[in-house]
Specification:
By secondary structure, this protein is mainly alpha-helical. It contains 21 helices and six strands. Helix 3 packs across helix 8. The radius of gyration is 31 Å and the shape is elongated. It starts with a helix and ends with a helix.
């Protein structure tokens, strides 16, 4: 079957319609990717046993280690298929990885007899979860550091550039959908940037944990075989080598609390971006932004004039799917009956799906931002049509100078009405406040009443 035919028949759109956009993530979280990480963890464990000088485990020299590591480095679809074939007999995925490695080591026995002699210590004293939880931690660590942060930081850089570029460009705000105190377009972009900056920081603070402590977390089998070995220290040494923090207290599985925090952090980023997508969709609808067109693209099958905000709509939709999965992962994974049940195993196979929808959505939002062009004239007209928004500063100044019923006077003047510049200026002229204050208020316009917006926008 060709790649195109496979993608046309894929059940998940991530493997079909969107597959080309997510190939690096698929390499991490596909079944083959999971197998590749398991192989590397198993290799690291045997290397550690040999390095430690465990009795009965031959001491591997540099050539042995290089040959052994090459099995992991050269792992591909052919090797994954072989593991799958072994699993058809074992009906156990991790045991199939162990048997695969023993097969590969046997092929090297002529040149590396010490490695072949050590083969029986592959997966020694381990439970499957020692391998799996370490692999998941490595996969999530790599997804964050090598793929997702790059895209998130690019999106944040786009927002930062817009914040700076439009720091002084006034726009009418809308609270409850109604005309409200003006801001600047740059300040509104800066708001989102700062929310994402904090959310990214919280995501980065989540430290991946792992455990390699046996069937129920107590090194029982390890100590039965070698009671004098510092197994906790040895396991920590292996995990340190992977850049993972050791969880010293676990049941058969690593409790997944850190994963819950990781998924919550990604979901929080996604919630912020849903807010951005909806706001930008609305600003496009108001005419504040135009979208650059691309030759050949069609916005509607019947209305030739349309340029739909599809990037923000796709982003919002995919973020919703992502967060549904992320919230379930976060809620479910820390729960396991007694020392182990398998409900986490099948759920964890969807981690790549949740992150895939997130990454796809981030890319769509970023692409949409690249297409935006500001219609400055539309922003100006909107401000000029809403002089009543100056009711706020006028009544606030009136209250400062002791004018009775200041709020109520402005409510009577403006509520539910459209006022002109002259209406506002005539009202100011009749106020019993110092002339210098009248002059200051008369100089105000909706476009100039933006407070610290420009300063705040340039701060990001």
């Amino acid at each position: 079957m060709s790649v195109d035919a496979f993608r046309l028949q894929a059940l998940s759109p991530l493997d079909g319609r969107y597959a080309s956009k997510l190939e690096p993530l698929a390499a991490l979280f596909s079944e083959a990717g999971f197998m590749a990480h398991r192989v590397k963890v198993e290799i690291a464990w045997l290397k550690a046993l040999s390095h430690y000088g465990l009795p009965q485990v031959p001491r591997l020299d540099d050539a042995d280690v290089a040959a052994f590591e090459a099995i992991g480095d050269n792992f591909g679809l052919e090797q994954a298929a072989r593991i799958k074939a072994i699993e058809a007999s074992t009906n156990h995925d991790v045991k199939a990885v162990e048997y695969f490695l023993k097969e590969e080591v046997a092929k090297l026995s002529g040149q590396h007899p010490r490695l072949a002699a050590a083969a029986e210590f592959i997966h020694f004293a381990c439970t499957s979860e020692d391998i799996n939880n370490t692999s998941h931690a490595l996969m999530l660590k790599a997804a964050r550091e090598d793929l997702m942060l790059v895209k998130l930081e690019h999106l944040m850089a786009q927002l930062q550039a817009m914040a700076t570029r439009y720091a002084a460009l006034p726009m009418l705000s809308r609270t409850h959908g109604q005309a409200a105190t003006p801001s600047t377009l740059g300040k509104e972009m800066a708001n989102v940037h700062e929310r994402l900056r904090r959310a990214k920081k919280q995501w980065l603070e989540v430290m991946p944990l792992a455990k390699m402590n046996g069937a129920v977390g107590n090194f029982n089998a390890h100590l039965a075989a070698y009671p004098d070995v510092d197994w906790e220290g040895l396991a920590k040494w292996v995990l340190d080598g992977f850049g993972l923090e050791q969880n010293t207290h676990s049941i058969q599985i690593e409790p997944h609390d850190w994963m819950s925090a990781y998924f919550d952090a990604v979901a929080r980023i996604n919630a912020i971006l849903i807010d951005l997508d909806r706001d930008l969709w609305g600003y496009i609808s108001l005419g504040y932004f135009r979208q650059r067109t691309k030759a050949g693209e069609i916005g509607s099958s019947t209305m030739p004039h349309k340029v739909n905000p599809i990037d923000f709509e796709n982003s919002e939709g995919n973020l919703g799917v992502a967060n549904a999965l992320l919230r379930h992962l976060s809620d479910k994974l820390p729960q396991s009956r007694w020392q182990r049940d398998l409900t986490d195993s099948t759920v964890l196979r969807n981690v790549g799906v949740a992150l895939g929808y997130s990454l796809l959505a981030w890319e769509s939002c970023s692409r949409g931002l690249d297409k935006l062009e500001v219609d400055q004239r539309k922003l100006e007209l909107d401000l000029e049509a809403n002089w009543e928004v100056l009711a706020e500063p006028i009544q606030t100044v009136m209250r400062r100078w002791g004018v009775d019923q200041a709020y109520e006077q402005l409510k009577e003047l403006t509520r539910g009405k459209r006022l002109s510049a002259k209406d506002i200026q005539d009202f100011i002229a009749g106020l019993a406040i110092p002339e210098s204050e009248k002059t200051r208020l008369l100089a105000l316009s909706p476009a100039s009443y933006t407070g610290m917006a420009e300063v705040l926008a340039r701060r990001v």
